Amino acid sequence: MNLTGTGVAIVTPFHEDGSIHFEQLRTLINHLIDNGINYIVSLGTTGESVTLTKEEKVKLVRQTIEFVDGRIPVVVGAGGNNTASVIDEIKLFDSISGIDAYLSVAPYYSKPSQKGFYAHYAAVAQATERAIILYNVPGRTGKNMEAATALKLGRDFENIIAIKEAGNNMVQSQYLVKHKPEDFFVVSGDDDLLLGQMACGFDGVISVVANAYPKHWSDMVYQASENNYDSARQINYALLDFVKYAFAENNPAGIKCALKHLGLCNDYLRLPLVNVEAELETKIEAFVKQM
Length: 291
Known about the structure:
It is built from twelve helices and eight strands. It has helices at 22-34, 54-68, 83-94, 114-126, 138-141, 147-156, 170-179, 194-200, 214-225, 229-247, 253-261, 278-290; strands spanning 5-9, 39-42, 74-77, 101-105, 131-136, 160-165, 185-188, 204-207. It has an eight-stranded parallel β-barrel, surrounded by six helices. α8 (194-200) links the parallel β7 and β8 (204-207). The protein starts with a strand and ends with a helix.
């Protein structure tokens, strides 16, 4: 699949009792597609995937594919720190038609060596014919997957087609772009660094803030991809404070707060996540009204 442009790590709306709110999911998906995003990522960190049961994940993926209805590609999160369990989950998802790729987070908590990262992803790649997007996010996993490891995986396995790089490291970002295989996509996972990464040659983004402002974010990515940086900067600076607010306490509490004030979905979360503090909500609400 083509991973240029704007992908959105979509939230999972919940009812007050904690069950998935599928009608709000439909509303949000239509909002994103109508405002120009290029693909959706379900079951990412922003979707609170670690709090969902296996049965809920399957139903959520099926409903997401149904609501998207072939209008844009669908990427599904499938990762973890137990390689065998990740493979089992992917095999479960392989039975569902309509999934275009898997986003697989680097193993967390156990902090494998670079050789361990490589062996993990090699096993995952060999377990499916579908495309795989590597996901490096050391702020959550506890250890950085180095650019050389990711690029070797991209060269060695045809179905490893991209990396979502969320290492908050511009040097590593540049190394990925400079040395990547020709048909390998480098995608941002850091909304606050996106414009600089696009200038370095990134192909696009898997965004959190685009849940709330898909047209603005998609326009910025497009303008940057066309080297229209004056226009891209204007959009980036217009949303800069909001990007800070969205991640100030935790993700997805910040973005769900914004979506509530935009009238797109409520802000219910599953523990251990809780709603943002009143002071931050006041800032988010004021920004939404201003925009």
